[in-house]
Amino acid sequence: MKRSHTVPNISSCFLAVAVLATWTWNANAHPHIMIDARATIVFDDAGTVSAVRHTWTFDAAFSAWSVQGIDTDRDGTVSPQELQVRADDNMVGLAQFEYYTYAFEEDYALTFGSDLPATYAINDGRVTLSFEVAPQPSYRVGDTLHMAINDPEYYVAIEFPSSEAVTTENMPAGCEVAVVPPEPLDPALEERLYSLGAEVLDLPPDLAAAMKWVQGEILVRCGAPSTNQPDGTPGAEAPERKAPFGGAPPNPGSISIEPP
User: Fold this and answer.
1) Over the Cα atoms of the chain, what is R_g?
2) Which residue of 28, 158, 162, 240 is most buried, as measured by CB atoms within 10 A?
3) Residue 17: which of 253, 258, 175 has the closest Cα?
4) Distance from CA of residue 73 to its chain's centroid?
5) Please, what are the averages of pLDDT over each run of 10 residues along the chain (260 residues)?
């Protein structure tokens, strides 16, 4: 039997939103969306990195906003089919932002794609998106692969609660993974970021340079010379991007939950 998710109790949802309205975080300032993340770096039997599995749990304010209207048949439950539509929509948007997954070693930059369906779940008033991306082609780590899972523009804040949130599968002997935590933001930089409105998807150049690689990274070390070569393919002009995940929620105090 297919399982369905019951729409959260309306009164409890309003209570949660009222509490959110007292937070100092303002949905009209960068970052607009908060994610608690987990990641698994997958190696194939040949010892190359073949995938990165993501599990992203969104903050309560964005979760409440994002599920409005998801119960399209208004039967009081959210079906697997309705959840899948939202997951598919998110993946279309994430593709415009390179899935917020970046990796390089020396002069070689990996390119990630996604061919497997994502999943969307609702638990305890928060939504979780799970999906997998794969480097194209798979990648053999030489000395050290640098990987960042974040939004360089800081529209979305992707945080790993601890180093245990990054795991590996089938990692070859002699390799290891280290998690470098984010650097504290300079107060002046933080103030400028938080002054940017929800319509700003691209940081001014000086802010973008200051934010580069300060949100932490994952290091995959195997201690061998790199055998990968840059492909020399010129990058195509990036298409105009829409706001990730459909944009930021309104001020938490203005969120309303439609009754089933």
Assistant:
1) 20
2) 158
3) 253
4) 29
5) 36 32 47 95 97 97 86 82 90 94 95 95 93 97 96 93 96 95 88 85 87 89 72 48 75 44
